[in-house]
Amino acid sequence: MFSKILIANRGEIAVRIIRACKEMGVQTVAVYSEADRDALHVVLADESICIGPAPAARSYLNMSAVISAAVLTGCQAIHPGYGLLSENARFAELCKKCGLAFIGPDAEIIEKMGDKDAARRTMRQAGVPIVPGCDVVRDAEQAKQEAEKIGFPLLIKARAGGGGRGIRRVDLADEVERAFLAASSEAQAAFGDGACYMEKFLFPVKHIEMQLLCDHFGNIVCLGERECSMQRKNQKTLEESPSPSVDEETRKEMMRVSVLAAKTVGYRGLGTIEFLLTQDKKYYFMEMNTRLQVEHPVTEMVTGCDLVKWQIRVAAGVELNFTQEDVHLSGHAIECRINAEDPSEGFRPSCGKITLLHIPGGPMVRFDTALYPDYVIPPFYDSMIGKLIVHAGTRQEAIRKMQAALCEMVIEGVEINRELQLETIASKEFTDGTYTTDFLNRLLKQLY
């Protein structure tokens, strides 16, 4: 087991990892930008090093600075969290060259599955259902030709990156060229790779993801599914487990296919297979995330498995001490992402000092955050400031518990999306579990 780990991240996920390390008896090193000098993860870590100015490109994304900090402080491993460098194959390879364990899969796997076009082809060859579409297209003219074969509506998608960027929906043939150029340009700017492929746009659909944990001894377990259909502009806002739309037969089949996908690529570590699920229970591979997910706490709640600790153990070469037969989903968990933004003003980000903070409590209520009274939220990073998670015996009880927790939560000094989350979970389509990926956008039109 590692004796010291550097956390190459910030905010709530850095705090989450530090807490797991403390419970494991592992020392931690935090890195921070000048804007995060007073951040909670800096205080909680055993050591901390400033690695650059506020912009992420000059600090948290500065690979040489992060690796130098790890070497300087005698770390054996780097945990990248999610976002930032977590799915950067070059960073994983640099860690290896510098004698540091990257807490995640090998660079080759990150690169292979990060290329969504290559991942589609790999899954297709393995017999995993994929969304009908085409491989990477060279230019707008080829995109027009392939679009006619696929049919409308369709999606033009960047093969690199994630977070909903580099994606355009096309409903008519005369929209293809403009959409292709826009998606390619956005992808080039965001990921340094403008290549795009196309898929049939399936709707209405559910977004279901399967959590995998794979060690270095060939053991693979699937820890069930998460429902991630509550989305705004392809960004998740609320997640739950298990999904109200996945019956036991479908669950077993999707778990089997997910394990097959992991075996096919020789996966090691924590990973997630994302699927689209249609109303007639047909499912299609969408992509694989080779990192810890933002929504991992709902899986922890229903399985009792600490994913961060196991992620660290697997990277250290520890064999899983449980099998698929030991995995049972107990009760129901819901997570609401709490963002510093104003939904009534087009989701304008909100920054400033936290003047009052009250975190909801009670049995099986969890708030993952890096906030504290008088903390100043900087304007340079993602707007998510916390994740409120609840667990109960049934979905109905979990919904009521989440409503109570949201009502109890007080964060003053900045605008937050609490009222929108309350509206969301009070809606009929959420309470009956029929909501699909287009639901939130429809709700927003009604509310704002």
Can you give a write-up of this model?
This protein is an alpha+beta fold. The chain has three domains: 4-103, Rossmann fold (3-Layer(aba) Sandwich), CATH 3.40.50; 132-200, Dna Ligase, domain 1; 205-447, ATP-grasp fold, B domain (D-amino Acid Aminotransferase, Chain A, domain 1, 2-Layer Sandwich), CATH 3.30.470.20. It is 35% helix and 28% strand. The chain contains 15 helices and 23 strands. An eight-stranded antiparallel β-sheet has the order 14-13-10-11-12-15-22-20, sandwiched between helices. The protein is globular, with a radius of gyration of 21 Å. The model has no long low-confidence stretch (mean pLDDT 95).
How would you name the CATH homologous superfamily of the largest domain? ATP-grasp fold, B domain
Annotated CATH architecture of the largest domain: 2-Layer Sandwich
- The CATH class label of the largest domain is Alpha Beta
- The strand line-up of the biggest sheet is 14-13-10-11-12-15-22-20
Binned, the helix content reads 25-40%
